[in-house]
Amino acid sequence: MSIGASITVVAVGAILSFATHVHSSGFSVIAMGGVLMVVGIVALCLQIAALHRQRQMTAAEVQPPERTVVVRPPSEY
After folding, report:
1. Distance (Å, whole) CA 67 – CA 61
2. Which residues touch 54 (CB under 8 Å, ≥6 apart)?
C-alpha cells in the first residue's frame, strides 16, 4: 500500500468514526472506522520505514569506492 493509499484509508476511517450517525444491529460503523484508521496508520508507518531503509541502501551504494584519481593536465593546441 502506498503512502497516499494509507492516508486515504485513515481519512475514510475518520469519516466513518466521527462523521456518520448510522446505527445498525450487528455492525458498528464507528468500530469499522476505528479499525480502518488503525490499519491505515500501521500501513503508513511500514511504508515510511521501507522508504527509509531503501534510502539508506541507495546512499551506501552511491558512494564511490576509495581509489586514486589521476587527472591529466589539459593539452595545448
Report:
1. 15
2. none
